[in-house]
Amino acid sequence: MQVTMCPERAIMEHITSKWGVLVLQVLSDGGSWRFSALRRELEDVVSEKMLTQTLRTLERDGFVHREVHPVIPPHVEYALTPLGKGAASHLVALAHWIEANQPEVSQAQRRYDNS
Amino acid sequence: MQVTMCPERAIMEHITSKWGVLVLQVLSDGGSWRFSALRRELEDVVSEKMLTQTLRTLERDGFVHREVHPVIPPHVEYALTPLGKGAASHLVALAHWIEANQPEVSQAQRRYDNS
DNA sequence: TGGGGTACTTACTCGGAGGTGAGCGTGCAG
DNA sequence: CTGCACGCTCACCTCCGAGTAAGTACCCCA
């Protein structure tokens, strides 16, 4: 493995970033989402600032397509590109694995804590 | 998706943490590693402090097995548990995907930057 | 008349992630 | 006899990820 800051590691950090993980999972259903609908779906745990920033990074990497309808009030839609779907699928697989194994992990944590 | 801090999200953050991603990938080859060998493999980009902290978190989650040989000088070995192998395999898959698609991503970034 | 929704941007602030350097207690190589 | 390797831990400090609040420009509904 090549480690010193290479493009691959940067891309990995974008995908596995705190908010990137969540955004990619929501978008992975294939639909297209408006900014505030996306935020509501994430139960407002992410601030507007960080959501914008995260979406910009993912857009720059070619994972997210941003479509602006120049109307007032503003209307913007976000969706995964084919490239984004590839990345997101791995994240979704990991998320499913975690969901399935969460009890086992929690048990391991309890074991570790009382010892 | 359930979002407000649930055990699943915490586990996801451990696995996708900055150093967790790298450690799990190195350990994923199945072998067992000594502390400083692991650090050298990561080309010293991670400090001793953060490596210890990351390994502790992964151990608590039941992903990493830590075996201490009580000799002087100290001898400690780290290896993935079966549970850890499950998690790491998804990370490795993602890493391979990134490696394969890195040129396309870099191209997207260049396109984004000159516009 | 004014309050809320839309999709942001900017400025200010703060906590915590993370780096640095030292210390430890011994065995072994030089 | 010196000094390094090992696998940490602790104290200190820095910097950046992230939150909060306010502003924007316009429309619609009450």
UniProtKB/TrEMBL annotation, chains A, B:
The keyword Protein biosynthesis does not apply. GO terms for molecular function: DNA binding. It comes from the Bacteria. Keywords: DNA-binding, Transcription, Transcription regulation. InterPro entries: HTH_HxlR (IPR002577), WH-like_DNA-bd_sf (IPR036388), WH_DNA-bd_sf (IPR036390). Residues 6-106 form the HTH hxlR-type domain. This is Transcriptional regulator, HxlR family. It comes from Lentzea xinjiangensis.
